[in-house]
Amino acid sequence: MPDVDVAVIGAGAAGLSVAAISANLGLKVALIERGRMGGDCLNYGCVPSKALLAAAHAAAEARRADRLGIRLPPPEIDWDAVRAHVQGAIARIAPNDSAERFRSLGCEVIHASAHFLAPDALEVGGRRLTFRRCVIAAGSSPLMPDIPGLDGVPWLTNETLFELAEPPGHLIILGGGPIGLEMAQAHARLGCLVTVIEAAPSIAAREDPALVAGLREALRRDGVEFREGVKLTAVEPLEARSTAEAAGVVAVLADGSRIAGTHLLLAVGRAPRLAGLDLAAGNVAMTKHGIATRRDLRSTTNTRVWAVGDIADPEGIGPRAFTHVASQHAGVLVRSMLFRLPFTRVDYAALPRVTYTDPELVQVGLTEAEAQAQGIGGLQLRRWSLAENDRAIAEGRPEGEVRLLLDGKGRLLGAGVLAPRAGEMAGMFGLMLGRRLPLSALAGMVLPYPTLAEAAKRAAAEHYAPKLLSPLVKRAVSLLKHLP
Predict the structure, then answer these.
(1) What is the reported pLDDT for 483?
(2) For the chain, which residues score pLDDT lower than 50?
(3) Nearest to 184 by CA among 144, 228, 224, 147
């Protein structure tokens, strides 16, 4: 008889969700974690980064309060207090992810590494553990680029960035994706010099170019410098000029230019944590992107094994490194692994992605470029500028816009937003796309006034305006006015 019903490898967002649901349903669960409970999101990702951004945004609001008639002295950045805020946020959330909580749910929590011994067995801390089902939720790690000289200079990732005892004098960030851009703005607003190097022609290369242009300009106003479309070819150590000055790093670019900084942050992507699992012993197939699974997240080669979160590579759609995907995967697993419901599939059609800068950049569904790549014809774009939004005007932030992508029949394919707190609109668009609601549902929605979300409603209404104001409708109204 197996030792446990469900063995979960990894106590990050995905693993914790699966373990909690399984235990609450009465199954015998072993939760295995070799590092810190809560994984990347709690300790090195979502929580500390958003806490740091909150401090940075407070400093920015103080600097620009004069737009509202409030004159304040330049903010004084207390780095120790900022760090205390970041660590305090982690500490306050940590009990939800703690070993004590999961033991109280009935899980056996094991602090050790795990690797497969057989298709139905793991070695965990020197112990053989057999299982009915195993869920691999080992997550991902920062991708280490192959850059000449990298082994000779100090560098940071999101796993070490929040440990800095002093603020960086000049932070060089390699990578213009969400992590790179968020940390660029956070440190710039906290008084650091920041340069972002992106080999692709544009930062946030996957997003709508029109919205990216507005974000780039906002970050430049904060003092962030960009080097886009140029490759980092090497890094060199920068010797300290005095005992009071710390050593740093020099970034050598393909165009021959050199950028000297005090710190280098690597933010070029994520890699699945596959090393050490001995997947071959478990007959678990993998790809370069993670564990090979079917669309129900079940291993393609071992029917006892499922994968969730960053490490899952569902066939045909690939991995997604978002914490909210971990929650989605947990829901799929409940139906697929626990209730054995047929036709359970992961679907990313309504998956939101958010870059938590200020303004925030949101995309739900397809961008115009993605729709064109899929051969979708008759595309229509409906937009509404926040310069025409009453709430944005009242707050002195009339910047950004909502862009809705429609097919030839007026059905919503995707939505992009650049606006303060735009992430709060993502759920509305996700519901629209996930439930395949008609655009009229958004256009007819009753929203509280004034809110930024009204821009989304106005963008939808733009689709119907030409029909509403057509000569035929005007003629009908002219005739109807004679009725009693």
Answers:
(1) 84
(2) 243-244
(3) 224
Rounded Cα gap, residues 350 and 121, in angstroms: 36
Q: How far apart are the first and last CA of the chain?
A: 82
Q: Please indicate, yes or no, if residue 285 is contained in any of the structural domains.
A: yes
- Give dist(CA 433, CA 483) in Å, integer: 41
Alpha helices in 25-162 (DSSP H): 39-43, 46-63, 79-93, 99-104, 158-161
How far are the Cα atoms of 56, 91, 171, 222, 449 from residue 192, in angstroms, in the given order?
11, 26, 7, 10, 38
Give the predicted TM-score (pTM) of the model.
Answer: 0.94
Task: For residue 82, give every residue at least 6 positions away whose Cβ sits within 8 Å of its Cβ, in sequence order, or none.
Answer: 52, 55, 190
- For residue 400, report the phi and psi dihedrals to the nearest 5 degrees: 100, -175
Residues 311, 137 contacting (CB under 8 angstroms): yes
Kind of pairing, strands 312-314 and 290-293? Answer: parallel
Q: How far is CA 194 from the centre of its chain?
A: 21
Spatial neighbors of 100 by CB under 8 A, at least 6 apart, are: none
DSSP letter string, 69-94 = T---PPPP--HHHHHHHHHHHHHHHG
Does residue 314 have a cis bond before it (omega within 30 degrees)? Answer: no
The range of the structural domain enclosing residue 247 comes to: 150-269
| Position 366 in a domain | yes
Q: What is the CATH number of the domain that holds 359?
A: 3.30.390.30
Residue 245's pLDDT is what? 54
Same domain, yes or no: 115 and 204: no
Q: What is the CATH number of the domain that holds 22?
A: 3.50.50.60
Q: How many domains does the chain have?
A: 3
C-alpha to C-alpha distance for 457 and 463, rounded to whole angstroms: 10
Residues 422, 361 contacting (CB under 8 angstroms)? yes
Cα separation of 417 and 361, whole Å? Answer: 6
Question: Tell me, what's the pLDDT at 479?
Answer: 77
Q: Is residue 132 domain-shared with residue 187, that is, in the same domain?
A: no
| Residues in contact with 112: Cβ distance below 8 Å, sequence separation at least 6, in sequence order | 32, 34, 124, 125, 126
Question: Rounded CA gap, 38 and 20, in Å?
Answer: 13
CA–CA dist 31, 110 (Å, integer): 6
Cα radius of gyration rounded to whole Å, the chain: 25
CA distance 371 to 290: 26
In a domain, 63, yes or no: no
Report DSSP letters for 329-342, one per residue. Answer: HHHHHIIIIIS--T
Residue 481: partners with Cβ closer than 8 Å, 6 or more residues away: none
pLDDT of residue 321: 85
Q: With contact defined as beta carbons under 8 Å apart, do 281 and 303 qualify?
A: no
Same domain for 461 and 424: yes
Do 318 and 272 touch, CB atoms closer than 8 A? Answer: no
